[in-house]
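Quick illustration, no need to memorize.
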Amino acid sequence: MIFLDKVFAAMSFELRVLVVAGLALSLSGCISSPTPILSDANAILGEQGEIHFFSAPGSGPREHSVMKFEWSGSRYVFSGRSGSVSDFTAHPFEGRDLIVQSTAARTPRLTEYAIARRLADGVYLIFPINEDDVDDPTRERFCTKTQDVSCRITTPEQLFVFAKATAAKDEDIGGIAVIVPTNRR
């Protein structure tokens, strides 16, 4: 639990917002890919809205952040402050879980992943997909270590292996994202 608190404390503003969406590139334990792995995304969170994000519990009070997002036809983009994440997509996974795929705004434009667990309509528990949730042989088989990242993946199969392991942990610690849809003008 202490590890997850540290992970969420180090998360970028936008990924914390969703993660629905990027973990700091130097964090160990979080998987990434050089480009987005999941395709054919749909506007499953609505056409546009606000994400109210409440940080994971830690040593201090929960932080509250708000980001506006809009569906571009293939991905969600943030309006206003762009920060370190340029865009994200949300994909149905298993049961009440979504996989969130976010792309960093700056070089290297890595793509990072998180689970968004639906708690109620428009309310999600957000936590990063973590390489440490699988055993050593699985990690050795599916992770490529680089100078920049501890676990690079390149295929949906690799992503799903890690996502299943992370989702199976059934942790109740993470950030909370509340999606508030808004009408198009």
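Residues 1-28 have pLDDT under 50 and may be disordered.
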